[in-house]
Amino acid sequence: MNILVTGGAGFVGSHLVEKLLEDGHKVTVIDDLSTGRIDNIRHLTCDKNLTVRIGTILNEQLMSKLVSKADFIYHLAAAVGVKYVIENPLRSIQTNVKGTEIVLELAEKLSRGNRRKKVLITSTSEVYGKNEKIPFKETDDRVMGPTTISRWSYSCAKAMDEFLALAYWREKRLPVIIVRLFNTCGPRQVSDYGMVIPRFIEQALRDKPLTVYGDGRQTRSFLYVDDAVRAIVSLSKNPKAVGEIFNIGSSERITIAGLASRIVTMTGSRSAIKLVPYEKVYTKGFEDMRHRFPNTAKIHGLTGFRIRYTLKDTLENMIEDARIRISKGGAKACC
Ligand SMILES: NC(=O)c1ccc[n+]([C@@H]2O[C@H](COP(=O)([O-])OP(=O)(O)OC[C@H]3O[C@@H](n4cnc5c(N)ncnc54)[C@H](O)[C@@H]3O)[C@@H](O)[C@H]2O)c1
């Protein structure tokens, strides 16, 4: 199959591309390298089934060429990470709303007869906002903060992507699948844009204090990227997933302070753990969600999907990856 992966040089995208190539597909990546890195896919570039285009999904002419050749589009390109979204509010909204609209519009326009192009949209657990329910079901309410707090724009933009995708399915019969990824992590994820595990690991490996934002009692569940990719691919093959939304996440929950002390122990670090008020890191009045934990009965019921990696496995793999990255200065071999 001819597959287009937007954001394919990003963290999740690069692992997905690896899997799709392994499965024998012809894969085209489009990425503007705003948060992604060519190093993430350098080891794949000698594969004759991979084409990489550096450019933006906001370039309709380029996207038209790429979408026209694709049977299936995994749409991952987005402005991602709390820190990045707060620092780049306009660019984030444009990429996350307009970019998705371009993908959906072209997929519909360039579909021929019965050969409908299929689109999988990567949404996020952020769409649930400040709802304090544990766990979240796909049909649960969204609870948003005010528009003056720019972190909520990410949640709203991704929710608009979902509305758009569902509208294309209902009105135009464009087959779409929506996945809501909960905190996904693994090798190649970097700390630059506000991702907590890579940041803690780097701090621990450098014997610097692990900075826990807020009171540290907020909880999260962390999904290993290989599990996320398996879940995404299993849904993309299932005709009953079309027009549906699925939570994808881990069933192990941990406080952020607990996560920090686990990483200190696992790395053998001499680091202390330091609580830092949110407003010192982000803007005044910053709001976070207390808990974020998925109900994954829907994906399990449809595909039988279960996670394979525990949090311990996840942390071990990420610590190993960070040690290699730090010792080699980030360089990766070309194939
Ligand atoms: N990692 C997570 O915990 C998580 C959680 C929820 C949802 N998601 C979603 O999964 C997807 C992938 O996220 P990720 O964690 O791999 O982040 P990432 O930043 O590594 O990947 C996003 C990729 O999109 C690219 N990109 C951004 N704007 C672009 C544009 N205009 N044109 C082309 N490429 C562009 C970036 O360069 C990057 O490679 C995103 O849609 C994100 O919202 C991720």
Features:
single chain, 335 residues, alpha/beta, Rossmann fold, 7-stranded parallel β-sheet, 3-stranded mixed β-sheet, 17% strand, globular, binds nicotinamide-adenine-dinucleotide
Describe this protein's structure.
- The strands form 4 sheets. The protein has a 7-stranded parallel beta sheet with strand order 3-2-1-4-5-6-11, sandwiched between helices.
- Helix 5 links the parallel strand 5 and strand 6.
- It is of the alpha/beta class and about 325 residues long.
- It has a domain at about 1-185 and about 220-250 and about 290-305: Rossmann fold.
- The chain has 11 helices and 14 strands.
- Helix content is about 40%, strand content about 15%.
- The chain is globular.
- Helix 6 (about 195-205) packs across helix 11 (about 310-330).
Topology:
Layout: E1 2-6, H1 11-22, E2 26-31, E3 50-54, H2 60-69, E4 72-75, H3 82-87, H4 89-109, E5 118-124, H5 151-172, E6 176-181, E7 184-185, H6 196-205, E8 210-213, E9 219-220, E10 223-224, H7 225-236, E11 244-248, E12 254-255, H8 256-267, E13 273-276, H9 278-281, E14 291-292, H10 297-303, H11 311-328
Helix pairs in contact: 1-7, 2-4, 4-5, 6-8, 6-11
Bound molecules: nicotinamide-adenine-dinucleotide.
